[in-house]
User: Fold ATP synthase subunit c from Microbacterium bandirmense.
Amino acid sequence: MDATTVLAEINGNLAAVGYGLAAIGPAIGVGIVVGKTIEGVARQPELAGRLQVLMWIGIAFTEALAFVGIAVGFIPFP
Assistant:
């Protein structure tokens, strides 16, 4: 096993760990968005439709962070 192979394995393992850590943020964000939407619907039931649309938009933006996190794992480092 040469140094290049070992370095590639280390980078691969770090990318997996990094993505695991990067997925924590969006998971917490989605939990907050859904929780606040439920709170809002409990306070103003007549706005449930509008709040649900805003919730889905918020979830989409939050999950975009997870996609960025997985893409960073594929960036080759010299």
Q: What stands out?
A: Residues 15 and 74 are 8 Å apart (CA to CA). The mean pLDDT is 82.
